[in-house]
Amino acid sequence: MRRRHRHNRRRQSEYDTPSNGIRRSVVGVALILLVLFAVGKMVLSYFGVGNAISQLGTTLTMQREGNVQVSIEGGELKRAENEQKLYPGDTVVTGPSSRAMLTFFDGTKIHLDEMTNLSVSESAHGQEKSVLSVFLKEGTIWIASPDKKAFSGAIQRSVSTPFLESGFPSRTEAVMTSRSIVVFSADGIGVTLEPDKAVIPIIVGEGQKFVLPAELTGTEDLYVFRSPLDPYALASDFVEESRNILLGDTQKNTVTTDVVEQPPLEEDEALIVNTPKNDATISLSTVDVSGQVGRKVSRVRVNGYNAPVDVNARTFSQQLALPDQDDVEIVVVALSQEDEVLSEVRRQVHRDRKPPEQPKILRPAKNGETYNTNSERFLIEGTAPQGTVGISVNDYRLQLFEPGNRTWSYLASTSINNLKPGKNTYKVVAINKGGYKSEPAILTIVLGEGPEGVVRPEGETVSSQPASTAVEDATPEALPANAPLKAGSLRVTGPTPGTVHTATGTSFLIEGTTLPETYSLWVNDYRLRLYEPGKTTWNYIADTQLGTLKRGRNAYKIVTRNAKGEILDTLTYVVQY
User: Fold this and answer.
1) How many distinct structural domains can be found in the chain?
2) Residue of 136, 256, 539, 544 with fewest CB within 10 Å of its CB?
């Protein structure tokens, strides 16, 4: 026992040597330094150290005379100044009949409609990652983010409201309220939305809209509230004005380069206006007003707006939105520090408000024609007049059309809900750089049964491409004429169930059901080409323009056949029109 006790004491003393104690101290200090380094890195990262973050200002531009106010760092609202810089924590509020544009460091533009309250949450330009976010308290905004190549580095763009948060990719054009969004264009899969109380975010893609209901429990399928754009509901002067302002920033008015040659300012001169020249004709909805000022000038006002003055170069420049009238007077006033009028110059300019020529539709038919087709997906193509900067089809602006293009195309498809069975009307409009629209070119597409091609007014079809020649398409005379094998299996469910209907209007669908073993379905000895073998539902378009509906009594003999061509059932549906 004693030996074992002494032996244990010797081993314990070995652990307690000075070298072992120093080793433990070094390890402990290293652990503490490691923890401090990790915490410090997190703190530095939070404050942007390592990412070289710069807080950049956002430029506020007012497009209309009206009540636009700003709140700086949460202070009281004051009247806004044109070209004023806003920073995180600042708020801009537009009143009735007033709109304003915000331009961010990456080129993103947000246009505020009337009665809108928006705050800048973050505007941080980082060497590796940048962040741009705003909070929309109420009202409506139009947002346009630049192309991916226009800004280097990763950037996160977002708009929050009291009810949802959205993330915007590059090349986005959208209109947003506190509960809804309409996406005209967006790179990638689209705009990401995270509604309040929702567990999973949803994607709103190009050509779609989303409206958040007033009541949301968090268990709903949010995609139920997403739908294709309704072009007639989107015709908005706010959208058109937003696009025209963007166009004016990217494509400067040609008359502004036609500078009036002016001698240098004399010592006692206060103001020289270089552009625009008097009696100039303006084709855009905006014009650049620029010139030189004397040393006594403190401020310059252009039609009541404060124009930015470069105090070193003694120059000023202001982009002015023009009212929608033929003749516009521009008044430029130079003011002293005491607001004394030192000089005043007036310019008269004329707006070219002539609309562009009508665009042309070339395929699948020409302007004013009616085309019958069985295809559920095809292109409508045509040409644009010279000077066209945009093409709209049923008030939807084509996103792939670039200013100056002479051709355009539009995809019609049942899968995106801009093509439906029956008559479809497409109105194509050209837009010039002044924002003026041409008379519409109109094409009518009828999706239904019948030969492919242009339809004459009397209903006769001129085939423009060969009809289907599938080997199973035999004539009725060549098929069996047996008694029905499944009598009673064929039914008409609409527009009136049964065998008789009284119709009004110019067209309607006859709909019904059949057996799963049905291989082909015939109406008045014409095989329905849109019917797929095995489908238990079917429809047929009765239309005066197609010649399948006429005044008086119309009898439709409906026959179903199996894969051998044998008759499964027959039914005659009578329509009194």
Assistant:
1) 5
2) 544
